[in-house]
Amino acid sequence: MIDLARNRPEFLNPLFRFLNYFDTVYFFFALIPILWIGFSYKWGLRIFYWFTLSSIVNTLAKYLVGWPRPSTDLPEIGLFTPNSPGFPSGGAQTCMFLGAILIYYWKTRAAWLIGTFYILLISFSRLYLGVHYPIDVLGGWAIGVLLFYLFVITKEPLENYLVRKGAGFCLVISLAIPVALTLVAPHQYIFPIAGTTLGVGLGTYFSLQKHLFLAQSKTMKETIIRSFIALSTFSLFIYLWPKEQSFAKSFSAGLFMSFAASPICRWFISRKR
Description:
Elements: H1 2-6, H2 13-19, H3 25-39, H4 41-65, H5 70-73, H6 90-106, H7 109-128, H8 134-165, H9 167-184, H10 190-210, H11 220-240, H12 247-272
Helix pairs in contact: 3-4, 3-11, 3-12, 6-7, 6-8, 9-10, 10-12, 11-12
């Protein structure tokens, strides 16, 4: 890690600083609108809940293990100095999970190239930035693969079960999740997750009842237009809200994404036509 830090080309530092955003909440709040509005609300819902689970697992693992980061042991080698423990790497865990899903479900040459490049680049960036040891990255990969495997084997049976139980049962479950999170793990990091989950649960229930969600996108052009509208309106909403992280802000963001974004996007598209 010391040798890597000493031999970092200065001109690459801005690029790898930018790649750090793939391990932040900003990436989460960009990816979900793109999937949910731009492509398919079903995939948006899936990735939202599994992303939330991944984040909780990673946080619990970090504080249970408690291993320091390179930037903690040797501050001079870190381009960032995160406060949380190092093992496992959340960035490596996320990119392995998402990259594996892209490769597995799209099964194209482009998916293999993009997925593999994404996994390797983001994982290496954690070492380059001095915020993780190689063992942290390997740990993140292991948990990411496990989550991916659980996603694949439970996707159809779990979703079929929820369809059979009905919307009311799903609403109860979606409300129980944030309550359980705040009771079991009353940590300041958990409260925004609980708020977002509560907002998404309520918004999804009412959107399904009122048939507000957009149909799955059929063309790349439609996906790009819908994604742009979703990101623009959602970013404006987040920008206008007070900057501090809070339960109320997270709840409103989840509710906006699951209840208001689809009608707003449909209105913009209809105006354009």
